[in-house]
Amino acid sequence: MTSNSGGSVSAPNLLEDCGTRMVGPYVLGKTLGKGQTGLVKIGTHIASRNRVAIKIVNREKLSQNILLKVEREIAIMKLIEHPHVLRLFDVYENKKHLYLVLEYVSGGELFDYLVKKGKLSENEGRKFFRQIISAMDFCHAHSVCHRDLKPENLLLDDKHDIKIADFGMASLQVENFLETSCGSPHYACPEVIRGEKYDGRKADVWSCGVILYALLVGSLPFDHDNLKVLLEKVKKGIFMVPRFVPQLAQDLIRGMVQSDPDARLSIQQIKQHPWVQNTYSDSLVLETEPSMMDVILPTGITCREDIDIDVFKSMSSLGCFKNKDELVKKLLCEEHNVEKVVYSLLFKHKRKRLSITELSENQIIKSTSGMLY
After folding, report:
1. The pLDDT of residue 303 is above 80
2. Residue 218 and residue 214: Cα distance in Å, rounded?
3. For the Protein kinase domain, which residue ranges apply (predicted)?
């Protein structure tokens, strides 16, 4: 097995020690759940006893397209470190499996919490919503669009704070529009449903508006058992907000769940909205996230030999840098560009992971720092 934090190091697959199964320095425990791409098990670090969630992806059972999606998800998650985004700590791999070492959160899905409680109080709904918007502002500042925001992909930690998860549909938007229709029909915006080119940031705003509706109402603005009817409802964009929802919150929801993407509120407008700004016991400060283009100092690359092969392959997996020759040219040119900034973020993450301690080969795989490709 190798750790894809960086360069590859040969080591055993899953180590057997007195009946326990290990991935790197983590002892595998009970199964937490099963998703489209594999099992998720709890993992306990043998030294620190810290717990993580380990997603086990079986390469042999998935199509090439799904594997490419997993690779893109890994690369995108390593671009983002935010208090309200689920962290990806490391990736191990062998010929048969990928092992994604993720932050463990114990509170379950926001979806299940809503099913149990029904509609939330205004203050609790606002707390969750502010955390979601803070995280999405950070993602968008790093050119990342989630594209599948829904309560099932919003997890709660032991402090009852939001962690945005499942970036399997996410995309790096470095050009004006995206084309792939994705997401869940109940939370997807009209332009995505119609199969049009769209701005992923505006698509995320629509989804956040639907989520806010669900938080405060306890149901969805667009719903029907018949998928065709549901899609038509979304495309029309006509919905009712119950009278018990405060007027300012109604105004915010209607500004976000707006059929015309050009008339839809931006993240900055949402953060400045009176309902969001309403003072109460919340320590979260909604500051403007600067664009990564303005704050990331590019890593110095003077010749082709300076390009880190692991980082380069990670960039290729993102899907927006498909022409490798053109990517090399962009990395070597003198101008400040998004390619250099993304490279620098991934390279920084690689260097950070180099601090992982190497233990004996019989127990722990040396984790070097890099990206899956």
Report:
1. yes
2. 5
3. 26-276
